[in-house]
Structure formats: C-alpha cells, structure tokens
Design brief:
Layout lengths: L8 H22 L1 H19 L4 H31 L5 H28 L1 H4 L1
C-alpha cells in the first residue's frame, strides 16, 4: 500500500531534489569531514581539469570522488541516526559507527590508489 503522503510525478521529482539539497546543506553545516573532503576534492578537480591525462581517466577520478562523498553522506546519516537513538555508550552503536567509518576509509583508499596510479609520474 502506498503512503497517502507520497507525492507522484513531477512533484515527487521536485521534492526529491529539494530533500537532497537540504541533506547536502545539513552535511556541509554539521560534518567537518564532509567539508574537508569537499574542499580537497574541489582543489583536485581543478588540477584534474588542467592535467594531461585522458578524458576517461578524468571521468573515472571524478566519479570516484563522488563515490567518496556518497559514502561520507551515508556514514554521516548513520551517525546522526545513532546519536538520535541514544547518546549513551552502547557497543552495538559503536560497532555501527565504526563500520561506517571503515566504509569511508576504504572509499578514501580507493581514491588515493586511483589518483596515485593516474599521476604516478609526478610521484616518481
């Protein structure tokens, strides 16, 4: 059964975009890691535009950066939800937060490996 509150059609699309924007604003205002990754990613994106690598490599590195931001947003959402459930120490909540952090770590590692591979001549 569909929710009576759920919109459909163009209204649904508009609302989805609006909620996404609110989520990005919340993350930017409240999550230091998100702001840091966005700042570093912006600088690297400018470097990427002037670099002498193939278009497919530029697209790959750009998509990997967006992947990192997606994982960071999911991790931030998990942390906000866990803090809403309980601010008291709970080993299960700690484990959930740690797994989210591990996901961000691996996404960051994937990005580092890809960037180093594509720009290895600058590092050697």
């Amino acid at each position: 059964m569909l929710s009576p509150f759920k919109k459909s059609g163009i209204v649904s699309l508009y609302k989805s975009i609006e909620y996404s924007f609110y989520g990005l604003v919340f993350a930017f205002k409240n999550e230091q890691a998100f702001r840091c990754e966005l700042f570093i990613g912006s600088i690297l994106s400018l470097f990427l535009l002037i670099s002498d690598i193939s278009l497919s490599s530029k697209v790959l590195l750009g998509v990997l950066f967006l992947f990192l931001l997606v994982i960071e947003l999911i991790n931030s959402a998990i942390e906000v939800l866990c803090d809403r459930v309980s601010l008291e120490f709970d080993i299960r909540i700690k484990s959930v937060k740690d797994m989210g952090s591990a996901a961000v770590f691996f996404a960051l590692l994937i990005n580092i490996i890809a960037w180093v591979y594509h720009f290895k001549d600058l590092f050697c």
